[in-house]
Amino acid sequence: MAVTKSLIAALIALFFVSSALATADVPFIVVHKKASLNRLKSGSERVSVSIDIYNQGSSTVYDVSLSDDSWPQDTFDIVNGNTSKSWERLDAGGLLSHSFELEAKSKGMFYGVPAVVTFRIPTKAALQEAYSTPILPLDILAEQTPENKFEWVSIVSFSIFLNNLCFRTFLCVC
């Protein structure tokens, strides 16, 4: 929970910094990477990854390339899409999105690293780099504890009990 709050705070700070920089005639690239786990009926697990690239600045960038090589081949198989992508340009205020899907081969915690975006600014000779937000650790093929199911059953049972108690109390008062 604390990690989520700090990530949200960082994104809000980035928004305010990007608003301040938007007044200058420069690009400001923000890259957001998200990953979610999807358990299949077969018992395997897939990881859906989406990466959004925002140009919060006021000028266009060219030769935009995304690379997300943080998924080792001995741990994941690519099921759909690619871990890299290129675009000709990203206009000021624009958004580029890319997604791919992986299937996990082994169980355990996975700590991904940020994706890398390279781009060219017409006023600079060297390629520029931007890094995505990190993803939260993924517990791949984790055992799902049945205790959570029992907690829900006890909560529902207790609420039914309270409902009956209140109804009977209401009937007795009338």
From TrEMBL:
Pfam families: TRAP_beta. Residues 1-22 form the signal peptide. Keywords: Signal. It comes from the Eukaryota. Transmembrane segments: none annotated. One of its GO terms (cellular component) is endoplasmic reticulum. This is Translocon-associated protein subunit beta. It comes from Rubroshorea leprosula.
